[in-house]
Amino acid sequence: MSGYTGRFAPSPTGALHAGSLVAALASWVDARAHGGRWLVRIEDVDGPRCVPGADRVILQQLAACGLHPDEPPVWQSQRGALYEQALQRLLEAGWAYPCACSRKDVAEALAARQRARPRHGELVYPGTCRNGLQGRPARAIRVLTARRLGPDAWEPVRIDWQDRRLGAQAQDVEAEVGDFVLRRADGLWAYQLAVVVDDAAQGVTDVVRGEDLADNTARQIHLQRLLGLPTPRYLHTPLVLGPNGEKLSKQNGARPLDLADPLHAVREAAAVLGLRLDAPTLAEALAQAVRQWPYRPAD
Known about the structure:
Number of helices: 9
Radius of gyration: 20 Å
Low-confidence stretches: 137-145
Structural class: alpha/beta
Order of helices and strands: EHEHEHEHEEEHEHEHEHH
Distance between the termini: 17 Å
Number of strands: 10
Largest sheet: 3 strands, parallel
Helix content: 25-40%
């Protein structure tokens, strides 16, 4: 087996749908095409959004489609100590700071500066708490404050990276995102920190995921560099769109996969990836997908 390690990391906010099967299949095929390991990580750090039992359903759906991880799955909710260690390193280096701002506070601060919402409606943090919480109204300083990546970490601010499908990518993280959250005010870990720590801890060499997550990559590379962690190769796959032209998701009513015929579901997911599977059995179709897979990591 090669040194390749890939992963599929679903959030258990519901069962897999057609779009999430595309991402799962792509990550599995890429791992198999390179003779590597394929892992499953349940990203359940956002506990309030998780649906009880959805993790079990997801694992059953993957198995029904012939997608079996090479190691037992892990759950992010059990890995808080690793995230705490990483956060403490950033705090001790002066690269993170406490923040008492709510989303409403951020929106109002941006409006006062006549700054419109940037791309994708993301709020670029205006730096309200960069110099400490002194002077903030008592009502704003909550017992649990968030932790943000701070301005001392922004050198260089431009992150250039190469996507195996999308090609050359670049982002000025400070200007386009701002000081992003590492741990939320309610104590829950932010996706950006958790995913970086877990990918490194699990030895992930290649991240294959949906194109909607490409915008997160620069932030994650920046954190990897600050923490001295390796940067995986990235490949972002085409999205499955709903009737309204937006990404198919649980939020816009995506239905759970109909796995009465797993072979049909896999064929449809493969078609989104540009693969034509006509083999008569699921096992043969998956092997056919591996043979057809066009993407190879850069040397």
